[in-house]
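Section 4.2 – Deliverable D4.2 (structural model, holo form)

The reporting period included a commitment to supply a predicted holo structure for the target in complex with fe (ii) ion. Inputs used:
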Amino acid sequence: MLGAMAVSSDSDDGFRIKIDDRPYRVVIQRSDGVDDIAFAGWELRDAAALDQAAAQLEKAGFAVEQSTETQLRARGVRGLVRTIDPSGLSSELFWGPIHDHERFISPTGVSGFVTGDMGLGHIVLGTPNLGDAIDFYTGVLGFRVSDYMRNGDGDVVFLHCNPRHHSLALVGAPELTLYHFMLEARTLDDVGYVLDRLLSDGVSISRSLGKHTNDHMVSFYSQTPSGFDLEFGCGGRRVDDSTWSVSEITKASSWGHHPPVAT
Ligand SMILES: [Fe+2]
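Output (structure tokens):
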């Protein structure tokens, strides 16, 4: 329904989803535990950058697990280390994705997804350790704050590590929770056709079409079978670190993003 490709893999670690020229971007694994995010991957430039990041993690007191050849082959990357972030999320830092040079051809005619130097999309995580999580992503891994939005006594903090306005947003929560992940299609027509397909299939739409104030994404939200939401949008803005200044937003959306109307 989303127009992504399902791909098979040699490894048995899950069902893989391809949305661009990478062999895959998302893995869905069967779990006996919680139905939630299992890990997040963050790409670094090269082996030297990964070594430097691993050293910074260890200096900051985070255990760093190196990967075996089998693990590297399973992920399809040249180098990868794992650590557990302050929220309890398994965070995989990697470099050197191994390409298969297969084209992305959407089975339902989505024209394409915006990735490249903007990465996969974004995730919004609830964390029981918001302050530590912010320090980890900004102080250790080098993310930058894009903006803040007040949320009760705390903040929602939007963070970027490439020109995408946010690849990660953090909000205080009793436990680690994936609130939603976002995929960005190339055009408004892609978003509209996907929305129509979901509606005609009876999939629940959690938030109507709307436009976010901070990243300018025109999107809707739909509940996945795992319970967390998928945000599907287009038109996200790019952040230029040489001119960007941090602000606080007071509304998430300029228009739309309404909850379902009770019937
Ligand atoms: Fe979002």
